Amino acid sequence: MRVLLTGGAGYIGSHTAVQLVGAGHEVEIVDNFCNSKPEAIRRIESITNAAVPVHEIDLRDRVGVRDLIAGGDYAAVVHFAALKAVGESVERPLETYDHNMSVTFSLLAAMEAHGPRTLVFSSSATVYGDQAPLPFHEDHRPLDSGSPYGQAKIMTERLLTDMAAADPQWRIAVLRYFNPVGAHPSGLIGEDPKGDPSNLVPFIAQVAVGRRDKLLIFGDDYDTKDGTGERDYLHVDDIAAGHLAALEVIVEDDPRMRTWNLGRGAGTSVFEMVHAFERACGREIPFEIVERRPGDVAVMWADPSRAKAELGWVAQRSLDEMCADAWRWQSQNPDGYATT
Question: Which residues are catalytic?
Answer without folding.
Answer: 149
